[in-house]
Amino acid sequence: MSIVGHLEELRWRILKSLGSIFLMSIITFNFANYLVDLLIEPANQISGEMNLQVLTIQGMFLLKWNLAIIGGIIFSIPVITIQIWKFLSPGLYDKERKILLPLILTAFACFMLGGMFAYKVILPFSLDFFASMITGGIENNFSINYYFNFVLALIIGSGIIFELPVASFLFSSIGLINPKFLRQYRREAIMGTVVLSAIITPPDPISLIIMSIPMIILYEISIFVSWFANKLFNQDS
């Protein structure tokens, strides 16, 4: 296929993915109230008091559409995965073609696992910590838009961090890293995970430990993943 043909195919793959996102966003908007209740639920479980308020006229409408778009992207991942697969698979070797689809699905699973970990574990501790910082005579009244920005940033950030084994596989498959390199810099990596955990979690030791432990486990998993990728792709080198 010529370069123009590849670009034309890529254009149609992108349009199909965008069309799926648009359709799924419209469908998700009809369930926006359920998503709002789902994301507010952690705030209702904290020991302190937290009141959420809509501070602008169009605030709730924009919030629901933002959730609908995010939901549309998530529910369109199977369609996007198929489009990526159909575009890339003709140019791959048999070994690469066999591993691409499982790799994409694994990346999605890791992201969802990280998001669930943030929602079920990190978020309740974070909200409880910040709500406990209140002093006498001051009420915890927060903008619902700022609340959702905080919640979504924490969930998405945790999901990205859980992609560490997938990143290890990709970098190892092209020879940028190897298990020896990861083991050699294990101490520096652990220190980096602690610093990163301190950034994405509130400044209390419990939340820091809760986030640091899975990150260290993910790093150890990444060493094994790197060994597997090097054996799979570089066995002839």
Strand composition percent: under 5%
Radius of gyration, CA atoms, in whole angstroms: 21 Å
Q: In percent, how helical is the residue content?
A: over 70%
Major sheet size, sense and barrel closure: 2 strands, parallel
In N-to-C order, the SSE pattern is HHEHHHEHHHHH
How far apart lie the N and C ends? 31 Å
In which order are the strands of the major sheet placed? 1-2
* Overall domain count: 2
Mean pLDDT: 82
Description:
It is a single chain. The protein has helices spanning 3-29, 32-44, 59-75, 77-88, 94-131, 144-161, 164-173, 179-184, 186-200, 205-233; strands at residues 51-53, 141-143. The chain has 237 residues and is an all-alpha fold. It is flat, with a radius of gyration of 21 Å. The protein has a two-stranded parallel ribbon with strand order 1-2. The protein has two domains: 1-144, no CATH class; 163-237, no CATH class.
Descriptors:
237 residues, two-stranded parallel sheet, single chain, 3% strand, mainly alpha, 78% helix, flat, 2 domains
